[in-house]
Model the fold of this input.
Amino acid sequence: MSEALLQVRNLKKHFPIRKGVMRRIAGQVRAVDGVSFEVGAGETFGLVGESGCGKSTAGRSILRLIEPTAGQILFGGKDIRKLRKGQMRLMRREMQIVFQDPYASLNPRYTVRQILEEPMIIHSLFGSPTERQKRVAELLETVGLSASRMDRYPHEFSGGQRQRIGIARALAVDPKLIIADEPVSALDVSVQSQVLNLLDDLQKQLNLSYVFIAHDLSVVKHISDRIGVMYLGQIVELGESDQLYENPLHPYTQALLSAVPVPDPEVRRERIILQGDLPSPANPPKGCYFHPRCKDCMEVCRTQAPEWKEVKPGRFVGCHLYD
Ligand code: SF4
Done:
């Protein structure tokens, strides 16, 4: 892997559960519970798991849009959890986010020009209105939209076009890293691949790094260099995308992958149906968090949490099957 631009170490985000008139803390929701991974310059790291597994909370915690409970987030070698507000604001220029819902994430009262100018104004870039307008036109062309539409409102665009505007807004301040939080899951399947191709092209042109968050392994497959599979606030398997698809090690990854359609009619993959729902992160099961749903569960899994092991160079798994 190229030199790590982002290093996330043992990241935790716990939300207190308050009860009673005194609002005493009665427990913790362990939404993110010790997540570690790295992303190199120009690399895409896919973070995958069922909804509610903590992947979006991890993404927001990395940007400090919500304050992490513990852990280290190094960006370009700097621990961003130690930055003060003003320093963090400067750092945000380098780390942007694209949200899942292009309908909700764009201000409906702003024109596209205003939406794209806003981050430039916040970060004091492209000082004059003429320079900003030139940059807005450039950004729209970059994401495949006509600059002539900059004075239109978000509702005048389709879902895919709105997500392109969201991407243009993230690019407006010239970031090095984009956290793409389920950027295509609100879009029609026919439009998804266009937006994925756009993200891929932009990465090549601008040497961007992505943390690509998705609930669907088929979406992250082509865009990710490496993938981390998340379950109940923890990464349970991590490895290069091709290896993970060819030979998933963790029973949870195997179940997720078994649901991904294979384009080759000769290849048949047995569908593994996951039993039950994702347990509550406020009250995770003892031992391996996955054991109540695991087809390979052994006695040890009910009482002892598996260790995180590197089973091959760059290939990690947390499962007693590999002890
Ligand atoms: Fe299944 Fe045990 Fe591995 Fe957990 S540790 S995934 S329960 S085999």
Remarks:
- The domain at 4-94+175-322 is CATH 3.40.50.300 (Rossmann fold).
- The chain has one domain: 4-94+175-322.
